[in-house]
Amino acid sequence: MRWAVALLATVLLLAGIAGCGGSGAEPGAPKGATVVLDFEPNAVHSGIYAADAEDFYKEAGIDLHVQVPGESTDAPKLLAAGRTDFAILDITDLGIADENGLELVGLMPIVQTPLAAILARKDGPVKRPRDLDGHSVGVTGLPSDTAVVDSEVSADGGAPAGVDEVTIGFNAVASLAAGKVDAATGFWNAEAVEAERQGIPLRVFKVDEFGAPSYPELVLTTTRKELEEEPELVEGMVEATTRGYELTESQPQKALDDLLAANKSLERADQAAQLKVLLPALKPAPFDEAVLEEWSTWASAHELLPEPADVKSTFDLG
User: Fold this and answer.
1) What's the mean per-residue pLDDT of the chain?
2) Domain containing 180: what range?
C-alpha cells in the first residue's frame, strides 16, 4: 500500500506543477501590484477603494495592494527604485521628479482641479486675497504654500511682499479658530470642511479662482520602464481605477461604504462631508494637454519647478 500512496502523491505533485506557470502562479491569476497613496486614506481615494472592493482590479487581472504612506515614505523614489508599481502623486512632486531625471509618467488624473486654497475667517479683515497685504497668513512651511499665496494675492491685484507669512505647520483650523492668524493655506476639501463642521465661518479662496489654471492636483503615476515593459498591467490599472471613480460619481454612498469598510478608523460624517464637496472634481476624464502646459508655466513662474516641465514626456497623453 505504501508504494501506491507514494505513487498517488507523485502524480498529484506533478499535476500541481503542470498546472502552474514558471512563477508558481496559476495561469490567468491576477498579477500582484502595489499603489502608494499620497496621504492617509480619505474621500479623495474613494474610487480606488471602490474599484478594489468591487473587484474591478481583479477583473483587469490585477491583485492590488493599497499602501498607506508613512512619515518617511518618498513615493517618487519608491517608484524609481521599483519598490512599488504605482503611486498617487501631487502634480508638483511629479514635475520635480521629472526635473530630477526619475523617469516617472503621470497616467491619469485622480482629482481634476487644484485642492489648495486660502482660508479666512468671515468675521476677519480678509475679504478677498488682496486683503492679505498687511495681514498674516498661516503656512505649513512648504514652498507650495508660498506659491499659492503669491499667485492669489498678485492675481487679485495685491502685493505679495506685504503679506506676513507665519509658519504654523499643519494646524490651519486650530490657528484660525484661535485667531492666531488672519488667514491660512489649506485644502478646500479637508481643512475647509473640518472648519465648517466645527462651526468656524470661513471665506474660501481656491487657487484656480485666483491666478492658477484648473490643473489636476493628484495624478496616478508609474515609471517609464513599467509603462513600456508592462503595458497590460498599466492599462488594466488605469481602466479599473477609472471604473472606480465612475462608480464614485454615480453611487457615492456605495463608494463611501467601500472606503470606510477598508479603513475602520475613518469617521463616516467626516468622509461624507469631504466626498460631497469633492464629487464634481472626481469626475474621471483624461488629461487636457493645454491645461498641463498652463500648469507647467504657472508652476515655473512661482518657483515650484526650476523650469517648465516637458508635458509630453511627463504625462501619458494617449
Assistant:
1) 91
2) 116-209
Q: What is the amino acid identity at position 29?
A: A
Of 32, 31, 36, 30, whose CA–CA distance to 222 is shortest? 36
Last residue of a domain, which of 209, 227, 262? 209
**Which grid cell is 25?**
502562479
**CATH code of the domain covering residue 129:** 3.40.190.10
Q: How far is CA 98 from CA 76, 125, 165, 223, in A?
A: 10, 41, 29, 11
Dihedral pair phi/psi, residue 191, rounded to 5°: -60, -40
Q: Are 85 and 296 in contact (CB under 8 A)?
A: no
11 within a domain of the structure (yes/no)? no
CA–CA dist 242, 47 (Å, integer): 8
| Ramachandran assignment for 113, one of left (phi > 0), alpha (psi -120 to 50 degrees), beta (any other) | beta
How far out from the chain centre does Cα 77 lie? 16
12, pLDDT greater than 50: no
User: Would you say residue 285 lies in a domain?
Assistant: yes
Q: Which residue has the higher pLDDT, 25 or 283?
A: 283
What's the CA gap between 134 and 119, in Å, rounded?
16
**What is the average pLDDT across 298-313?**
94
Q: Are residues 231 and 309 in the same domain?
A: yes
